[in-house]
Amino acid sequence: MGSLVWPDLAQAAGWLPIFFLGAMGVAMVAYVVLDGYDLGVGILLNSANDSEKDAMISSIGPFWDANETWLVLGVGVLLVAFPIAHGIILTNLYLPVAVMLAGLILRGVSFDFRVKVQTQQKPIWNYLFHLGSIIAAMAQGVMIGRYIVGFDSGLLGWIFSALVAVCLPMGYMLLGSTWLIMKTTDKLQAKAVRWARKSLWLTAAGVGLISLATPYFSASIMQKWFVFPNIIWLSPLPLLTLLCFFLIYRSLNHLDTGKLHLQWHPFVLTIVIFLLAFLGIAYSLFPYLIIDQMTIWQAAAATESLWFIFWGAVIVLPTIILYTIYSYWIFWGKAQPLTYY
Amino acid sequence: MIDTLLLSRIQFGANITFHILFPTITIALGWFLLYLKIKGIRTGEQYWSQAYQFWVKIFALTFALGVVSGITMSFQFGTNWPGYMETVGNIAGPLLAYEVLTAFFLEATFLGVMLFGAKRVSQGVHTLATFLVAFGTTLSAFWIIVLNSWMQTPQGFKMIDGKAHISNWLEVIFNPSMPYRFTHMLIASFLTVAFLLAGISAYRVLRGSKSVANAAVLRMAIITAALLIPVQMVVGDSHGLNTLEYQPAKVAAMEGIWNTEKGAPAVIFAIPNSKEQKNDYEISIPKLASLYLTHSFDGEVQGLKAFPDKIPPVAPVFFAFRIMVGVGVLMMLISWVAVWLSRGQRSLPKWMLQALVGMTFSGWLAVVAGWYVTEIGRQPYLVSGVLTTAQAVTKLPTGMVLSSLLMYLTLYIGLIISYIVVVFHLARQADMPAAIERLASAEASTNGLGAATIKSQGV
Q: Where are the alpha helices (DSSP H) in B262-397?
């Protein structure tokens, strides 16, 4: 563990980087949860019949574009607030980023092409939508994995990244299927319950494996978690995660027996699991931006540049959140077929 | 020689070339849709909303391509040009952040309402959503052009320990070339869309479309083009004079002038020879360049040789400039003749309709050529006088950049072809009996029975 120097947090140079780390965290979590559910729907698309495919895509139609914008914001904050780390992180993630972008491009354009091409070509674009979603999700898994191990290029580092690459799509499938439970009806909804149950087990296994493997890769993470008394006050994180898994399991059983009044529960609980996992990772890394190598203060941009964007963020971010809520409110309730008129 | 620098430049060039095609359309098409929307509400004429319903589909498709290629752009800064953000991140970062915060979320969120919310919100809110999308695309263009212009004509900063630090944000935002570049680009977007509208509408007429909406759009498009093209030429000329003041080497490359001279000739055609620093096969008109650059027959124009070690690649700038101007002149001829031929509600002859179909994507050619002039003309600098392109490039192995480049190129070529095919397919579909019937029934059900009874109509 490098020698860690804490700056004076009463000074702008001390707290502004923390503010921007928080903003980046909000953007990244918003991205993973929001684009997570529509990537999840994409991953599940191949298991549905043609009319179900239309219904599934209708449920994400008005949102996917704005959901993806949180990724641009996350990378944007990294670039603005921590320009040096931005270069280091993105050059180290060069190939997975390129692959993810290819996946996101395929997914994004297929959404539009599939309903605008001649009917006989529709299945091709449906398939590309599905494929693009899987590619993007797995590449994001590799990126997260590589980032957590500090771009360690040993075999174990790559095995860990491969593990995350397999688990993240499972988590997205859970988000996607619980989203569909909330937004669809009848047969498709029953199908979504079955998908949710399958991905629930896979996600739980993934979260467990990753949680056990992470401290193994970094002595400082081990130090932060498994030392008395940290382990006591950190224990709510894993315990709450377990509780959420159990509650989702129980509400899926309820849905099977036709009790539909709690159909939004699994989705919300899945979001809570993602938030808890994020808190765990954030706690493991803070105050490092690149683990054991570069703190947020070492990576931060000049204070006067941070001030300029701080005021913008303070005013604009809440506005964005408000109109995002407004757009979800407009499309509230069960998804309806998408029409332009 | 194939190295990481060259491949990264090709990759960035390919990315930005692919990306700019789509915002160029959505910026002006957004305002055009707002116009159709308001016109439809004001006049109560059904054909305006029919035109809206047709063009909003093309807008949605174009927007999606713009979004995904734009996301790729935002990652390229870090993956291929880490030196860029490390050196000027204090200036470039906040400008990009303001683009994301003020524009991207606005357009992306209200796009959903604009495309799919017509039945769920009031007319007023739907019009507002259409406005916010158009406003968002334009605001986004503003921020990115502020940044690009700052890279061309940087000011309002000081260098401390090799890094740019802000001294005045207003000077950064309103840097000398920004107003010219922004205006030039906005008009370029409107011209591109005018020819897209005219081309697709003409295509539909040629295929026998009797749609009143289509005819109205065609008429509006050629009038818009005819009015805007002379304005664009004046703006382009002032932009050139501004460039002459701040980036004389770029103008010398555009004009193909090697030697500083009084009474410089306007080179009509030549093959610039960088090795011997002269033009081969030159055809030129004496003293003309001095006249339009300095407004005097004997004004002095600096040649490329006056900028040793800072000469941009001459041939690409020289030819791209001629392509842009050439397309502009062709646009003027065709739009003026088309307006004259359609005077007094006359319908256009077949040859003119065919010419318009041929010009459908002519705006793309002019826009891309224009950006090549300004971006290649800035070389060898990434930020004029501050940072060279070679200093900013990643140290990644060549093979890695080559593999991503090939992947992007394959995707982009496939997608451009698909886009053009689908736009024409939508145009053919619009006049099929089934589509017309569907429109009529949708109209009836929204007017009469409300949203609950509307059946699935596909997107």
A: 288-294, 314-341, 350-358, 362-376, 389-392
Per the structure, the count of domains in chain B is 1
d(CA B219, CA B198) in angstroms, rounded, equals: 8
Distance from the first to the final alpha carbon of chain B: 48
Q: Which of B65, B79, B118 sits opposite A91 (nearest CB)?
A: B79
Residue of A nearest to B85 (CA): A83
Q: Which residues of B touch A108 (CB under 8 A)?
A: 64-65, 67-68
ipTM: 0.82
Cβ-Cβ contacts under 8 Å, A131 against chain B? none
Which has the higher per-residue pLDDT, B260 or B431?
B260
- C-alpha–C-alpha distance, residues B101 and B114, integer Å: 20
- What amino acid occupies position B279? N
CA distance B356 to chain A (A): 24
Terminal alpha carbon distance of chain A: 60
Report the distance separating Cα A84 and Cα A89, nearest Å: 9
Please give, rounded to a whole number of angstroms, the shortest distance from the CA of A150 to a CA of chain B. Answer: 17
Q: Burial of A26 by CB count in 10 Å (0-12 exposed, 13-18 middle, 19+ buried)?
A: middle
| Domain ranges, residue B15 | 4-230+330-369+398-449
Residue-wise over B36-46: b if at least 16 C-beta within 10 A, else e? bbebbeeeeee
In a domain, B157, yes or no: yes
Q: Which pTM value belongs to this model?
A: 0.86
| In a domain? residue B156 | yes
Confirm or reject contact between A313 and chain B (CB < 8 A): yes
| CA nearest neighbour of B301 among B272, B330, B266 | B266
The number of C-alpha atoms within 13 Å of B327 and in the hemisphere containing its C-beta is 23
User: What confidence score (pLDDT) does residue B446 get?
Assistant: 42
Q: pLDDT by residue (tens digit) across A130-140?
A: 999 999 999 99
A50 touches chain B (CB under 8 A): no
Quote the CA–CA distance of B305 and B255 in Å, as a whole number. 13
Euclidean distance between CA atoms B402 and B392, whole angstroms:
18
DSSP-derived 3-state class of residue B301: strand
Interface of A with B in 168-197 (CB under 8 A): none
Instruction: Name the CATH topology of A13-325.
Output: Formate dehydrogenase/DMSO reductase fold (1.20.1630)
Report the alpha-carbon distance of residue B239 to residue B182 in Å, rounded.
10
Q: What are phi and psi of B85, to 5 degrees?
A: -70, -35
Cα B316 from Cα B266, distance rounded (Å): 17
Residue B75 to residue B85: CA distance in whole angstroms? 12
Q: How far are the Cα atoms of A92, B74, B90, B300, B336 from residue B396, in angstroms, in the given order?
A: 9, 18, 24, 45, 52
Mean per-residue pLDDT, B411-439: 81
Q: Which residues of A touch B394 (CB under 8 A)?
A: 91, 94
- In a domain, residue B270? The reply is no
